[in-house]
Structure formats: C-alpha cells, structure tokens
C-alpha cells in the first residue's frame, strides 16, 4: 500500500465539496485519526455502551472483550511480556505521575531527567522534590541536541534511583540511544522510565528487548482517541508499588477499615474507564501495525529532508536540533530572527490552511534557559505528502520575504 | 494603538458574535496592559496582525509588505480616524437627543437615528389658504419672533418664565402628530403658550374664524376646542355640522359663534394674526419657538422638554 491509500482513511484529509483543504503539520501534538478508530468508538456508543468487567449482561461482556483486546493490542505493539503490564491512563502525563507517586521514593533519592524534557516529565519530579525531598538532577544534551552519553555515565555514578527521559524529544525530534542508556542505568541499579509520547508514533518499541522498566505514551499521538494513554511497567515493579489513585474497580473487596486491592493492572485503573477511548486505542494500535514503522520512518525522513533542504536558504532561520533530518524524525522546529513564531504559525494557517505549532511546546525550561522566546514546530506523519511539505516551504519563504 | 482600535471595533461586533466577544476581551486586556505601562503580552496584536497579513499576502505580496512595515503608522491613522468619528458620533447622538436631528436643530440632512427624517417633516404651506410669501424659503435661518406682535395670538399661562409659540393647523398631519406631545408638555411644564393657527386648506379656513370667536368668548373653552379639533377625524374638519357639534358640546352658543365668525371685523383680526404669523418666516407646520429658538417639524417630547427645562428635565 502507498501513503495515498492510507490518506483515504483520514476524513479530514479528504475534504468534501466546500470543505477547505487542511495541511496538518502538528502531529507531534496529536495525530489525526483514521475512520477505523472513529468507527470503533462509534460502535461502543451505538451498540454496546456499557461497563467493562462489572456487569454480567451481554453488552458488558462485549465491552470487556474489546477492552481486553485493546490491552492485548497495546501489549503486542510494545512487545510486553505480559498483557497485565499494560495500564490504561489518560495520557503520558498521567503515566509519569503514576510512577512518580506510586514508586517508593525516599528523601535524598536522585531522579535524573534530560535538559529538554516536556513539562510532563519535569513538573511531577519538581513536586517530589518539595513533597518527598528527592533530588532532581538535569542532564543537558550536546549543543546540537544529541545525547551526552559520557555526562550520563558520570551522573549515574552519584547513585541515581530513577532515570526519566523523553525517548524522542518533542522539541527537536532527537531520539535517545535508549539501549545504551538502559544498560548503563541498570548496571548502576537505576530504574528507567521513558516518556515515549513522541517515540511511540514513529518507531517500533520492544520493551522486553530493551529491558525498559516503565514507559508512558499517549493514545492521541498514535492515531488513537484523545484522553487515552498507556503506562507500561514490568509486572514485578508494578506489583510492588502502591496504587496512585484508588477507588472503584481497584479493589476486590473492602470493609469499613480496610480493603483488598485487585492485582495489576486493575489496581492502577481507578474508576469507570473511558471504554470508547480504550477500544479506539486498540483499533489505533492495530492500524498502526498495519501501516508499519518502517514505512512511517521512511516517509517522515523524506518529508523532513524536503523541509530541511527547502528552508536552508531562508535568511535568519535557525533550526533547533541536529542539522541532519534523519536524526529529527518527523519534527522540524525553527525560529526566524525578528519574526514572532506565533505570527508565522498564524500566517501559515491563514495563507494555506497549514497547521503548525508555535510557542515553547511545553518545554519552557529549555527555552527560558536558552533565552529563546519561542519557535515554530512543523511535525509530519506518514499521511503527509511531499506536495504538502513543498507548499509549507513555499509559504514560509513568502512570509520571510514579506516580514 | 491597534489594540484600542480593535477593542472598540470588536466590542461592537461582539454584540453579535461570540468569537468577536472573545477577541474583544483579549483586545481590552491588551489595552489595559498598555495603559498601565505594561507590554501587551497577550499576543493579541500579533495574532490579529498575522491574520490580516495572512489574508493579504495571498492577494498581493507588495501590499502585505507595505502593511507589515507600516502597521503601527496605519494603526495610528485608524486610531485618529476612529477618534474623530467617535467624536462626531457622540456629537450626533447629543444633537439627536436634544434637537431630534443628528445635524442640529432643523437641519434636514441624513440622520442615522432618524433615517426617514420624521422629526423634520412639515406640512407645506404653499397650497394653503394663506400662502407664505414666496421669498421666504430659508429653512431655520430666517425663522424669528423678532418684530412679531404676539398680542393677537391665543395664549395661556401668561405668568410663566418660559415662552412656547406654536404655529400649526388643525388639518396638517405633522401638527396633528405633535399636538398630543405639546399638550402634555404644556400641562407638565406650564410655559406661556401661544398658538397661531394657520390653515393650509381652504376648506378648513373657517375654523380660524371659529377659533377666534371662541377664544374671545371663553379662553378656557378655546383650548378645549383645540383638543377636540385635533382629536377629530381629519376629514370631518371640513364638515361644518361636525364642527357645530364640537362647539355645542363645549356648552357654547353655536349660532352666536357663527355670527361672530361672519363678522368682517373677525376676518380683519384673523388676517392681522396671519400677518404676524408670516413675520416669523415659517415655511411649514408645525413650527415652534421655545424661548425664541425655532424648531420645525414634529419633534419627540424630550426635545421640547430639554428646550424648556434643560438636559435633565426629567429630574424636575
């Protein structure tokens, strides 16, 4: 199948008579959804709008089966050892918060994070510094955004309890050498949590092969519904942790004084879940595997190459991250001297319905440290075409010419 | 400057659209930050500028470049224009409120608040029983009470500090329209009230003589008669029998009034009154002089009240 075959599945990319043609270059924020995902959710609401696991009627049985299937799909997608290692969350942020609050941290424990982390992988740890007295250490990258392995080794020697890195940066698209990172971390007795929000949509992740301890991802970035996500954790680790949120569906029984928690994953999935979302996420995982990560990476590289080469003669344009598009996945982040990033984004939108992100992309800490006001991020996915990218480049040049 | 212009324009548009309301809120926030000497960091101006340039650039890069380079100057120009138009708008509102016309008393130019010019309409006197001299064509400028002898005019409330002179005719549409307001005004503020009846139709000119005789016989009943004539169906004013009935209902001797009306001296007096009325240079009915200031056409009640008692007449 070609990319055009997949585009047909995305309603917004196939405008009807009077609908405007959208060029969506904000997939790092959230991807578009194929009709297979939308229909799967639709079926939940129209055919079996019931609870999973609680009731015994036929509708509930259907939902239970489909939620189990979604867990199975996610487990398969991530290469987990056991399906129970998949915990449904609302997003990556919730997954990271779950680990931060459920893992047993003691005063003085060191958590090591990167220098260009999304707020989701910064603020939860800042809170732990205040609440539990942990130490938060920051590991900065090289000037071009690539990972500084020797600095990492040095940092590990201080006795780190948890290493929490963004697998692929939402700022510059750089993917970390996680295999080496995990080996080194484990050698020093540190656990590894990966924020895979940006990595999961574009690369095959095998948590078992990589020996990842925890991995959080968002459904809305992998063609799934918004408000869905997954936390993967090694069963042994999850089993030994105390639940973060408790209440309905997390316990087998309770008395007025105490309760008996359900095993993993139920003990981490408090309250009535977003069943439509979970079912949609299962459909997304299935769809993603049918596209294949090789095709996705190939397309993203091609598009990023066109963007990089097409814009390198734009005066005053500064690329954030390495110059080689192969190292930036589907992300192309830049700023132009003297032009507000929001203005560029708004103008692209007005001129050609090109949707890009502008601002600090939830990585305020990095921008504030560098003294950069903001940037524009064009992020592609496999459904984007060469023609769309050429239009983006053409309009960007026009803006530079005028402003 | 752009924020101020946008705040005003979007606030008006915001009345009709929620999207504009949200933008207006952003613009107002921006204005507030600017007037408190803080930078406008809401991104509003950037957002609007980008939206404008984004639209323009597809049509003409040259224009977009010009706009981009001169955005602040253009914003200033629009600000000044907006300020000027706002001042004119406030002035027009004030004039409309106080004179019934956006352009000032008796000015018949277009007024957005009175698009049909209803407040300045008059009944023409050119086909009247007593035509106005042809040389009198001024609209407002020549209207005066100077040299007009008001002794012959029917009058009430003679000891009032305010003077209200009313020229109209029983069968004129706009006099009939404004009469109830004037009556209410006279009852409420009790000015020295003169009424000069100037018939515009030959068939109703006999009413002037009737009126003269009634006034001479019983002033109070004269005003009651006026009320009755203005309340009477217009077509019946030409009907002598209907008039007789009104006179009779007032408790007056119809025959005596009719005899008086046929007296040559009555006609002389009436002609003298008409001559005095003409000296005002009026060109249509109703024409009203409040403390000497002329108002032509049927104005709203408030206009007369303001002339009599000032802007805050309703407090009195």
Give the structure's gist in a few sentences.
The complex is a heterodimer of chains A (403) and B (316). Chain A is α/β, with parallel strands linked by helices.
Keywords:
heterodimer; A: 403 residues; alpha/beta; Aspartate Aminotransferase, domain 1; Aspartate Aminotransferase, domain 2; 2 domains; 15 strands; globular; B: 316 residues; alpha+beta; Glutaredoxin; 7 strands; elongated
What does this structure look like?
The complex is a heterodimer of chains A (403) and B (316). By secondary structure, chain A is an alpha/beta fold. Chain A has two domains: 3-27 and 292-402, Aspartate Aminotransferase, domain 1 (Alpha-Beta Complex), CATH 3.90.1150.10; 48-290, 3-Layer(aba) Sandwich (Aspartate Aminotransferase, domain 2), CATH 3.40.640.10. Chain A has 14 helices and 15 strands. In chain A, the strands form four sheets. In chain A, strands 2-8-7-6-5-3-4 form a seven-stranded mixed beta sheet, with helices on both faces. In chain A, strands 11-12-15-14 form a four-stranded antiparallel beta sheet, covered by helices on one side. Chain A has a two-stranded parallel sheet with strand order 1-13. The longest helix of chain A has 21 residues, at 58-78. Chain B folds into two domains: 2-69, no CATH class; 122-297, 3-Layer(aba) Sandwich (Glutaredoxin), CATH 3.40.30.10. Helices cover 53% and strands 8% of the residues of chain B. In chain B, the strands form two sheets. Chain B has a five-stranded mixed beta sheet, sandwiched between helices. Chain B has a two-stranded antiparallel sheet with strand order 1-5. Chain A binds chain B through residues 340, 342-351, 398-399, 401-403, and chain B through 43, 46-47, 49-51, 53-55, 57-58, 61, 64-65, 68.
């Amino acid at each position: 199948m070609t990319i055009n075959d997949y585009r047909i599945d995305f309603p917004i990319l196939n405008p009807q008579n009077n609908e405007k043609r959208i060029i969506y270059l904000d997939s790092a924020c959230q991807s578009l959804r194929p009709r297979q995902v939308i229909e799967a959710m639709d079926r939940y609401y129209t055919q079996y709008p019931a609870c999973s696991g609680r009731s015994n009627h036929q509708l509930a049985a259907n939902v239970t089966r489909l939620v189990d299937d979604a867990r199975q799909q996610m487990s398969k997608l991530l290469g987990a050892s056991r399906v129970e290692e998949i915990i449904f969350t609302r997003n990556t942020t919730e997954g990271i918060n779950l680990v931060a609050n459920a893992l047993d941290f003691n005063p003085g424990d060191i958590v090591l994070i990167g220098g260009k982390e999304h707020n989701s992988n910064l603020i939860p740890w800042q809170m732990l510094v205040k609440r539990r007295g942990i130490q938060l250490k920051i590991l900065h990258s090289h000037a071009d955004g690539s990972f500084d392995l020797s600095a990492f080794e040095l940092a590990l020697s201080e006795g780190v309890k948890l290493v929490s890195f963004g697998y692929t940066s939402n700022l510059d698209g750089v993917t970390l050498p996680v295999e080496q990172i995990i080996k080194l971390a484990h050698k020093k007795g540190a656990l590894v949590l990966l924020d895979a929000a940006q990595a999961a949509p574009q690369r095959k992740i095998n948590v078992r092969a990589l020996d990842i301890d925890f991995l959080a991802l968002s459904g809305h970035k992998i063609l799934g519904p918004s408000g869905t996500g997954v936390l993967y954790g090694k069963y042994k680790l999850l089993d030994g942790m105390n639940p973060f949120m408790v209440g309905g569906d997390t316990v087998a029984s309770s008395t007025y004084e105490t309760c008996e928690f359900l095993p993993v994953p139920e003990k981490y999935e408090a309250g009535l879940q977003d069943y439509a979302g979970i079912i949609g996420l299962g459909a997304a995982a299935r769809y993603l595997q049918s596209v294949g990560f090789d095709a996705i990476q190939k397309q993203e590289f091609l598009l990023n190459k066109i963007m990089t080469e097409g814009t390198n003669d734009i005066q005053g344009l500064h690329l954030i991250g390495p110059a080689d598009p192969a190292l930036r996945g589907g992300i192309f982040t830049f700023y132009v001297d003297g032009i507000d990033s929001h203005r560029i984004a708004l103008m692209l939108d007005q001129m050609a319905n090109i949707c890009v992100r502008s601002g600090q992309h939830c990585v305020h800490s990095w921008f504030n440290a560098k003294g950069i006001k903001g940037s524009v991020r064009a992020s592609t996915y496999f459904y984007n075409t060469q023609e769309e990218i050429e239009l983006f480049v053409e309009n960007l040049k026009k803006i530079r010419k005028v402003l | 400057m752009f924020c101020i212009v946008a705040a005003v324009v979007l606030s008006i548009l915001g009345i009709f659209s929620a999207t504009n309301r949200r933008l207006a809120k952003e613009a107002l926030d921006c204005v507030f930050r600017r007037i408190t000497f803080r930078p406008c960091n809401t991104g509003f101006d950037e957002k609007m500028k980008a939206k404008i340039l984004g639209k323009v650039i597809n049509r003409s890069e040259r224009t977009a470049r010009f706009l981009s380079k001169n955005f602040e100057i253009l914003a200033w120009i629009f600000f000044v224009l907006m300020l000027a138009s706002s001042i004119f708008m406030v002035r027009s509102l004030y004039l409309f409120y106080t004179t019934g016309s956006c352009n000032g008393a008796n000015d018949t130019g277009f007024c957005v608040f009175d698009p049909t010019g209803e407040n300045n309409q008059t009944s023409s006197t050119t086909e009247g029983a007593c035509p106005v001299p042809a040389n009198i064509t001024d609209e407002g400028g020549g209207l005066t009470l100077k040299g007009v002898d008001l002794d012959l005019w029917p009058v009430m409330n003679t000891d009032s500090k305010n003077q209200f002179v009313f020229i109209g005719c029983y069968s004129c549409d706009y006099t009939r329209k404004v009469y109830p307001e004037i009556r209410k005004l006279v009852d409420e503020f009790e000015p020295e009230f003169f009424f000069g009846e100037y018939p515009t139709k030959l068939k109703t000119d006999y009413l002037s003589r009737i009126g003269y005789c009634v006034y001479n016989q019983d002033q109070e009943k004269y005003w009651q008669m006026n009320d009755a004539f203005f309340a009477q169906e217009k077509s019946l004013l030409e009907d002598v029998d209907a008039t007789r009935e009104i006179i009779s209902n007032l408790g007056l001797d119809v025959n005596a009034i009719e005899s008086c009306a046929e007296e040559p001296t009555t006609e002389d007096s009436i002609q003298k009154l008409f001559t005095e009325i003409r000296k005002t240079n009026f060109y249509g009915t109703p024409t009203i002089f409040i403390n000497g200031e002329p108002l032509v056409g049927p104005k709203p009640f408030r206009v007369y009240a303001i002339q009599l008692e000032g802007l805050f007449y309703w407090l009195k």
